From TrEMBL:
<feature type="region of interest" description="Disordered">
    <location>
        <begin position="74"/>
        <end position="95"/>
    </location>
</feature>
<dbReference type="Pfam" id="PF22507">
    <property type="entry name" value="DUF6994"/>
</dbReference>
<dbReference type="InterPro" id="IPR054263">
    <property type="entry name" value="DUF6994"/>
</dbReference>
<protein>
    <submittedName>
        <fullName>Uncharacterized protein</fullName>
    </submittedName>
</protein>
Amino acid sequence: MDDERDLIAYNEPRVLGEVIPDRNADDPEYRKCSTCSAVLPADRLMVIKHRNAGQPKGHLRIYCPDHFARAEAARSASGPATRPPSRSRPLDDRVIDTTYDVQTDTPPGKDPDAHSDTLHRYHRALWSKTLPDGTRFDLADGRPGSYLDHESDHGRFWLTSDAVIPTFPHKAGDIVAKLGDGEFEEFHTLGYTIGGMMIWPGNKIGNKQTINGARGFHPRIADRFDLTVECVRRHYAGQSSPLSGVLGRYTDFFALFETFEGFIDHFLLHDLLDGGRVRFAMPFDEFDGPAVPQDLATYRRFMEASMEFIHARNARIAAYARTLQPRAFVEGEAGALSAGPG
């Protein structure tokens, strides 16, 4: 048998040293956790074969005991075994499928943030919620003039979608080219599940950049979500950051959630934090260093941390979606979604 992937069934955890004895070799590269790069004996590592659109035989991921426990917890929270994203699988209009690649229902050459009807529906259902002050933040379909709208005593807000996890195919193209078969495709596809998506105010103020635009163009942020959320944390704390100017222009939006914790709760971003602090996907040096990975090891660390966050957030979203009443997925009287008890 030439390919060790043939030895393992999909989504069935196995002890690495038992199913692939050759991994007990002295070379540490064969005994390394795919997430944290910890080198351990093969009989202490678990291996799971995941489906991947770019690899017909699947993609093997190796887990140390800690990250295997996290992966199993996320899988349990998601319910039954997840299905791979499919570009032909029909969606149940009542269900939020956290494995669904929103590029699937996007016309060729178009941006899912603007053109995926599924993503638009998911955003409306998930983020139409009760605010900390007890009032509702119900989102209405603003298209074609805008993406999503909210209007209440708090004011009027125009929201747009944003795929928040960059993969740097151009800024780190030379590094991406060194990845294994299908690795980049798996990362890229996962980023277009709902766990990799966010909404921000989309209206320009004073003809200046929006949050989406500013975080993408600022060289010390480079579209990274962990750095963006750190800037949001500092905004609530009254501290400066590379995005202070643009976040300050949208103070009314952030005031809806009252505190940084309220913002995190509303958008189910808890898995990006560790003890109230942002869990950075790369070493953080107060925004002084490059925001884009400069070598393969750093890119892998960034990729693995980002994927771990998306998987965990998808599990959290799936658990939250199961608490919503069926009415959360149908039109309200004013064209807004009523998102159950949330």
